[in-house]
């Protein structure tokens, strides 16, 4: 029984997080005004168009932000947390307003966490490609995604020996937020889900 629970937990979390990541990538690519002609963008569109396009009639875009993708990512994270709770042995009261609010907040924290993972991967990818393959067609996408976070730091942190260390600073900050803040916040929020007496 414990093995089945672990397997279900693994499948639910990984499938849901993969779909959340796809929707967030779509959201951030559009926000950064990245061309969707790149194969990576085509891949993201192919896997998300089936649900994003029909719902776009109901949830319109807010300027350059693809609100539909963001809302769907939030709903997917919310459903993931509900499913994960349903397979636990504890009798949670999911219909309570406090429980629903806690699950919605946990879903939002999940989006923040996934966004930080995406930024982490983009910065690492950009740093590696700048050394190994600076003319790689993926570089403009990575630059568009990382520049808003690196540019402010570059005003205060000059290159050392001709090497830009701002990606390292951002990676350290991301690790700090993920390990110290997000992990504890998720636990505190999910403790607010009411348990049946």
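^ Assign residues to that structure.
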């Amino acid at each position: 029984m414990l093995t089945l629970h672990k397997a279900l937990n693994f499948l639910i979390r990984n499938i849901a997080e993969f779909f959340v990541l796809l929707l967030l990538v779509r959201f951030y690519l559009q926000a950064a005004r990245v061309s969707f002609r790149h194969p990576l963008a085509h891949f993201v569109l192919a896997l998300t168009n089936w649900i994003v396009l029909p719902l776009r009639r109901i949830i319109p875009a807010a300027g350059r932000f693809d609100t539909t993708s963001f809302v769907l990512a939030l709903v997917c994270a919310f459903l993931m947390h509900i499913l994960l709770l349903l397979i636990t042995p504890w009798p949670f009261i999911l219909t309570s307003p406090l429980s629903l609010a806690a699950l919605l907040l946990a879903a939002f924290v999940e989006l923040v966490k996934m966004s930080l993972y995406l930024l982490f991967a983009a910065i690492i990818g950009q740093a590696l490609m700048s050394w190994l393959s600076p003319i790689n067609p993926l570089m403009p996408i990575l630059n568009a995604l990382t520049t808003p976070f690196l540019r402010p730091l570059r005003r205060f942190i000059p290159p050392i020996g001709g090497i830009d260390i701002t990606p390292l600073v951002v990676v350290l900050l991301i690790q700090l937020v993920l390990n110290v803040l997000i992990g504890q916040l998720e636990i505190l929020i999910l403790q607010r889900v009411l348990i049946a007496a």
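The chain has a mean pLDDT of 89.
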